[in-house]
């Protein structure tokens, strides 16, 4: 599968685009309008030094070649017309994902395999909207995909086993370590472990127990971990915990969502990629 289309060019979508292009794939980056897509060149310039820092084989020439393999489009029909595989990385809301796949189903070639990068939602809840449930499954990436390079592959009861293996192979071709998940699980493996950890940290914050800095410092000193929970929030970006938390049944998660909107999102502090979140990276 050489031709990839990525739907959504946010923090993780843009990383998937760049990583696939760096690995030799031809990539179309789709988003809703040209204004959003116009921000991508700055994103590539942000990612390049991170690749040079973290990947021994990265060179300026290879990174420029990756950018040359990326095409942008705000026309969905144009974006998917040649796709061998489509990875959807739109906001983490079931209704948005279902609507997106309904639109894609009417436009994509018959050959195309469909993948969602959802971090919490089940493929079986989206599959009926794809028009080809046997060719639909999840391929979930961790943030900073070039270095934290897991690719969680999770199908649903109707996923063709051959398609499942094709996606696992594709993940390997773009530098991921395929993690084959044998049963649907909300949060997959990574977020089943990570989300309760992050929720515990945000609960400590909104209850006034300790500051983000002291919570992070405690975790790193006591466990030897390289990052604390609020440093991880900065890598994930503020929009994901806000989107997940604002309608949560947990009042602490709703309070945390309101807090990060007021103190960070409304001020343009969207996390590490924007130069500032709980910490400054400018």
From TrEMBL:
Pfam families for this protein: 3HCDH (PF00725), 3HCDH_N (PF02737)
EC annotation from Swiss-Prot or TrEMBL: 1.1.1.35
Residues marked Important for catalytic activity (site): 140
GO MF entry, a single one: (3S)-3-hydroxyacyl-CoA dehydrogenase (NAD+) activity
Known pathway: Lipid metabolism; fatty acid beta-oxidation; Lipid metabolism; butanoate metabolism
Domain 3-hydroxyacyl-CoA dehydrogenase NAD binding: 4-183
SUPFAM superfamilies: 6-phosphogluconate dehydrogenase C-terminal domain-like, NAD(P)-binding Rossmann-fold domains
Keywords attached to this entry: Fatty acid metabolism, Lipid metabolism, NAD, Oxidoreductase
Gene Ontology biological process: fatty acid beta-oxidation
Reactions catalysed according to its record: a (3S)-3-hydroxyacyl-CoA + NAD(+) = a 3-oxoacyl-CoA + NADH + H(+)
Protein's UniProt keywords contain Oxidoreductase: yes
Limits of the 3-hydroxyacyl-CoA dehydrogenase C-terminal domain: 187-281
Top-level enzyme category: oxidoreductase
NCBIfam families listed in its UniProt record: PRK08293.1
Name by which UniProt lists this protein: 3-hydroxyacyl-CoA dehydrogenase
Species of the source: Leucobacter chromiisoli
Taxonomic lineage from the root: Bacteria, Bacillati, Actinomycetota, Actinomycetes, Micrococcales
